[in-house]
Design brief:
10 helices; about 250 residues; homodimer
């Protein structure tokens, strides 16, 4: 099968490594020419280029860009592709993206492989990143059954555990377990850094126990990721945040 | 040196094992006769009894009971001890306890060894529990210098890192790094369990990532511990909670 991957970071790079090892032909697309060079060196792709037109005969295309670039990428792909091409994405928020893409390209099934690392980028990609991790697919009533079957098979070939639910159910579940913890944790770090007494702040940093390190870990990551989560999963995050504040 | 330890749980038991291995004579006190028997079997103490009167010739006494039992224990000890006996405690909140004990027994220095385990009780005590962990002492203007010197030396002999600050500074620092994370984390668990849609709740539990597990870990412990923290470190916890809510 010829599989196109748009976005050659940790997720896109790892997908390329694994599927290429299974004999699929991988066409990798990156905005940056030097990432394309690295993709070829690392064995992530058979062909790597900055031109989306290289995807015109792909059987499957995985959108593995940052969340905000997914729908604009599909808009650019629409005039290029033949209608049999099956699209999927790896975005961590689904409802808004799925409805936008379905309107542009019906042969699409939303996806979310729930694997990651502290580091990002193609340099840390690895073929077994998804082994044992959840891979959520979010087909809707209008998703072609063949598209769901095709992406199910590809995702399971990664060694991941397949879950299927609606885009809205996905977004509420990840609001609880992923987006809300990031906000809770980031707020903890920021509140602590506002301590007015420098001696207390220094002492807190010296004494910081494993309890603090664990609770604050996920909040210490990229601020952009938090903003993206809040923007693309706004309704579900706001609802879970309201219930959280009440508990607190 | 003869060292009395009141409360033979994880902390009291571990102190006994370590100091006894250094040649000190350990008198262990527990409310429960079977814990005294185990203390002797495990090598935690040379003498172990339920009677506080066994402490009448102790050089140093460590109060290692739960927070709420520390001051009542000192009240019972006052008529028994000779004035040279140096008292210390291991409570995780200091200001209220230190001022209450100083009024009863001037020869006292507050302490807080910041070591622990998921399990509690004498069965999991170990001599090296404190190695590399912070041990905070909170002397005040009225603490005798010899008392501070004596407890400093004993705590450093555990291999721990000694920090000294005021009781109020201690309480603000631990509110940030220990008490607040427990509340933040417990609220996250409770808010999530209130999800009304059983399918979303089930999905959330299946997908729960390391981010959620880390952020919710410290909140999953004993509810009594959280209540004790909130009661004994009320002012500092409320202040940090207010700043946290504002950040959120």
């Amino acid at each position: 099968m010829q599989i196109g991957i748009v976005g050659l970071g940790l997720i896109g790079g790892s997908l390329g490594l694994k599927w290429r090892s299974q004999g699929h032909q991988i066409v990798g697309i990156s905005r940056r020419a030097d990432t394309c060079t690295r993709a070829l060196q690392l064995g992530v792709a058979d062909i790597a280029t900055t031109a989306l037109t290289a995807l015109k005969s792909a059987d499957v295309i995985v959108l593995a860009t940052p969340l905000s670039a997914i729908v604009p990428t599909v808009e650019q792909l629409v005039p290029i592709l033949h209608p049999e091409t099956c699209l999927t994405d790896v975005g961590s928020a689904k409802a808004a993206i799925v409805s936008a893409i379905e309107a542009l390209w019906p042969n699409f099934v939303g996806g979310h492989p729930m694997a990651g690392k502290a580091e990002s980028g193609i340099e840390v990609a690895e073929a077994n990143l998804f082994a044992g991790c959840p891979y959520v697919l979010t087909p809707t009533v209008s998703t072609p059954q063949e598209a769901t079957a095709c992406i199910s098979e590809l995702s399971q070939s990664l060694g991941s555990k397949l879950y299927t639910c609606s885009p809205a159910e996905h977004d509420r579940a990840v609001a609880w377990i992923s987006h809300l913890p990031v906000m809770v944790s980031a707020s903890l770090i920021r509140a602590c850094l506002q301590e007015a007494d420098p001696k207390v702040l220094e002492l807190a940093q010296q004494l910081a126990s494993s309890g603090f390190r664990d609770t604050s870990r996920v909040g210490g990551g990229s601020p952009e990721l938090g903003v993206m989560m809040a923007r693309h999963n706004r309704a579900a995050v706001l609802e879970s945040l309201a219930q959280y504040r009440q508990q607190l």
